[in-house]
Amino acid sequence: MLRKLPLYICFVFGTFMLAQFFIPHPVSTALYKMVLDWVQIIYALSLLVGAAMLIKHHTLIASKPVAKDRQYSLIVLFGIFIMIITGLFFGRGNKTVFLWIFNNIQAPMQATMFSLLSFFVASAAYRGFRARNAQSVFLLGAAIIVMLGKVPIGDMITPYIPQSADWLLNVPSMAARRGIYIGIALGTIATSLRVILGIERTYLGGK
Amino acid sequence: MDIGITIAAILTLAIYSFLYKDNPFYKTAEHILLGVSVGYFVVITITNTLIPKLFIPIFIEGKLIYIIPGVLGLMMFLRFHRRSAQFSRIPLSIIIGVGAGAAIPAYMQAQLLAQIKATMLPLTNLSNIIIIAAVLTVLVFFYFSREHKGVMGFGAKAGIYFLMLFFGSTFGYTVMARVSLLIGRMQFLLHNWLGLIN
User: Fold this and answer.
1) What is the ipTM of this complex?
2) How far is CA A205 from CA A185, A199, B77, B98, in A?
3) Which among B111, B130, B188 has CB closest to A175?
4) Closest chain B residue by Cα to residue A182
5) Model confidence at A207, in pLDDT bands (50, 70, 90)?
6) Whole-angstrom distance, CA of residue B138 vs CA of residue B160
7) Around Cβ A186, how many Cβ atoms within 10 Å?
8) Nearest residue of B to residue A40 by CA position?
9) Mean residue pLDDT across chain A
10) Cβ distance A51 to B63 under 8 Å?
11) Residue A66 to chain B, least CA–CA distance (Å)
12) CA nearest B162: which of B122, B119, B120, B132?
């Protein structure tokens, strides 16, 4: 029974969410809003489960005196608790420690992490981009035109480069993306139906 | 000089030290980022979702029905207890069911019909013809229920070329976005921190 119960619950909630779209009645709309609130609450608490698991993992490592890289787990735990304590008990507005940490530690480090990817992308492109056949020439050519078209040197070489880059992005690239989006939409609808009907049940885990 | 800028600059350099090789400075910075980010997201989840949607309705407005999602959400924590872990499937099934039910009309309307509508263009110029041809051939490429032979094969092959243009231009665009972030960080180091450039 406990194995089947989640499938029934999934069917009931899935069918309701699907049906309410076609029934614009005040009762259905109110119920819809309530279900959305419920899901947001469950979802928020589920996210906290993830944070709790991370804390548990690093607490286990930090509590072992001879564990390798123990100091890094202590740093993670310190970061988590300093943000929670400052954010929940000392405010989050202007001139607070919470915002100061966000502005001077978290935001610059996140931007740096993403910028670090430019080096790896460049290195991967150098190793991976080889004009072996017509298809890879299209790939390489499009990438070069778009990259040159987005910097001043492209316009300095010839104004056709930024124009071509814009055309590539707005016409063939956008159209191919549209084809992919249509495929994704069809796949999502089919998978959602399978989930609601209990055919797809991998989210329950186990065999 | 602002101490915040110096700390941000030192942490920025610690992350860039990974370009040489994995080292303790990078690892320290990486774990600081992990801890601070998780702490930030816990605070935001509590203050932006749990307080206004759970605690205020129950404890201030007296809407006791919100105890149900609260209990369901707390059931997710049963994952930590091996014997009771199976009960965490109940709130999970609600999230999955609602997500699946909401996705069908949302994708039907916002993705499928909207994209098809946007593709129905007058065949008055070359760009419109290319857009229609690209959408159709890409769809043919992703249609695996029939063997790609004859007209289907030709369409699928043309679809690959359009996909290559898409991947190439998307790659180029992504690289430029990352490079602009890199420029931003260099400006921070050389202008905001060291004051070497205007």
Assistant:
1) 0.86
2) 25, 14, 16, 18
3) B130
4) B112
5) low
6) 7
7) 16
8) B49
9) 92
10) no
11) 18
12) B132
Q: What CA–CA distances, in Å, run from B101 to A36, A129, A188, B110, B153? A: 12, 42, 11, 15, 36
Residue with tokens 């039907």: B108
Choosing among B89, B125, B191, which should be mutated to test the A contact, i.e. which has the most A CBs within 10 A?
Answer: B89
- Which residue from A38, A49, A141 is facing B168, i.e. has the nearest CB? A141
A 10 A CB-CB count for B38 gives 21
CA angle, residues A139, A140, A141, in degrees to nearest 5: 95
Instruction: Give the pair of three-digit tokens for residue B80.
Output: 């930590």
Cα dist from A79 to A19, A60, B34, whole Å = 45, 16, 8
The structure tokens 């989210």 sit at A203
Looking up tokens 């819809």, which residue turns up?
A: A32
Question: What CA–CA distances, in Å, run from A49 to A55, B47, B76, B92?
Answer: 10, 16, 7, 12
**So what's the pLDDT on residue A1?**
66
State which residue of chain A sits closest to B135, comparing Cα positions.
A179
- For residue B185, the distance in angstroms to the closest alpha carbon of chain A comes to 7
Asked if the Cβ–Cβ distance from B111 to A184 is below 8 Å, we say: yes
**Tokens encoding A118:** 């430019």
Tokens of A120: 């790896």
Tell me which chain A residues have a C-beta less than 8 angstroms from the C-beta of B79.
49, 53
Say yes or no for a CB contact (<8 Å) between B101 and A186. no
Count of residues making up chain B:
198
Choose the weakest-confidence range: A2-6, A44-48, A79-83, B123-127.
Answer: A2-6
Check CB contact under 8 Å for A184 and B46.
no
